[in-house]
Amino acid sequence: KNLEKDLIANINQNYDIANKLNCFEQCLEHVDKNKEGLDKVKLIIRNKGFITEKEFETVMGKESLQKFLIRN
Predict the structure, then answer these.
(1) Predicted TM-score of the model (pTM)
(2) Which of 6, 22, 61, 64 could cysteine-pair with 32, CB 3.0–4.6 Å?
(3) What is the pLDDT of residues 4-42, one digit of tens each?
(4) Among 33, 29, 40, 28, which Cα is nearest to 68's?
(5) 44, 59 in Cβ contact below 8 A?
(6) Where are the beta strands (DSSP E) in 1-72?
(7) Is residue 19 a contact partner of residue 50, using CB atoms and an 8 Å limit?
(8) Extents of the domains making up the chain
(9) DSSP conformation class of 51
(10) What radius of gyration, in Å, describes the C-alpha atoms of the chain?
């Protein structure tokens, strides 16, 4: 569980917003075809500059979160 948090924290810290959005987009294209969810994720990142694991899971679902974390 901590590893997951660290991964999300790492993504949040190491990418500026443009890179972060790009990273999410690329990962999610492979993982999840949920365009609407992806737009929500991007909106959250644009507004706050980061997204929490909980928010990501709420928007994209647990399965997508797991796949996303495995890819990163």
Answers:
(1) 0.56
(2) 64
(3) 667 677 666 655 666 777 777 776 665 556 778 888 888
(4) 28
(5) yes
(6) none
(7) no
(8) 2-71
(9) -
(10) 11
